[in-house]
Specification:
alpha/beta
């Protein structure tokens, strides 16, 4: 396994593959999760990516699998699986997926990147992951944009979490080129830390980020990670995902 620097963080993460966990509880099943995680770590993969919305949502339901209400969250499954090897894992999870139906629970109308919602979400993730810190905390923007919270408040909150030791670094996910630039320039204006990486949907079947987003990242010195590099299995030939780390999903480290 090769390892690449994760932006300016000084961390080295496995390349070309990381272990994605979106479908944990379905594929692999809860009973097989430990085997899949152990296999990945034994191959030298040290970067595990999850989110507070992975695993036990109806969108992941599949015939023959337990329903969402019966499944543990992917964060819970990951927390159990890496407990004995936590110090050897670079662990990533995400905000701002909604945490409930309330007006301040991070709905799709905004508020998910407010200080209140970020702090609530990170505390819940820490409990589920059975850890006292998160190595990489992503802002997952395109899926749950927050038009009502100033980007300066969001970045200021991440800066405070880093100083408290709750998270080690923060990163961005699915930002447009101009949004990525705005976030970096805002961090500079505040005297805060920049994000250490940007995660994008990218594969031979999904190359839209090549036009603007990836050039912006290179210009700003922000490293890029692809999620779904095998296009959800389309490019895997039926066996590619299993060859990497069982039937789980993958991520790819593209560049520094």
């Amino acid at each position: 396994m090769e390892y690449a620097l994760l932006g300016s963080s000084g961390l080295r993460v496995s390349r070309p593959a990381a272990l994605g966990t979106a479908t944990f509880g379905v594929s692999p099943t809860e009973a097989d999760t430990q085997r899949v995680v152990d296999f990945a770590l034994d191959q030298g993969i040290n970067f595990v990516d999850t989110a507070n919305s992975y695993g036990n949502q109806p969108r992941f339901d599949r015939p023959g699998a337990p329903s969402a209400e019966e499944r543990a969250s992917a964060e819970e499954l990951v927390g159990r699986a890496i407990a004995a090897r936590r110090d050897h894992v670079v662990l990533a999870t995400k905000v701002p997926d909604p945490v409930g139906p309330g007006p301040n629970d991070g709905s799709f109308t905004g508020g998910g990147l407010s200080r209140a919602h970020i702090v609530t979400t990170v505390e819940r993730s820490l409990r589920r992951l059975r850890t006292d810190h998160i190595d990489i905390y992503y802002i997952y923007y395109a899926h749950h944009p927050d038009p009502v919270t100033d980007v300066a408040d969001t970045i200021g909150t991440f800066e405070d979490l880093i100083r408290a030791g709750t998270i080690r670094y923060y990163a961005l996910s699915t930002y447009a080129g101009w949004e990525l630039t705005e976030a970096v320039l805002t961090a500079d204006r505040l005297g805060a830390r920049r994000p250490v990486r940007h995660q994008v949907l990218y594969s031979l079947a999904e190359r839209g980020v090549e036009a603007e987003v990836m050039p912006a990242g290179r210009h700003l010195g922000i490293s890029t990670t692809a999620f779904s590099p095998l296009a959800g299995g389309l490019l895997a030939g039926g066996a590619g995902l299993r060859a990497v780390a069982g039937p789980a999903s993958t991520h790819a480290t593209l560049c520094r």
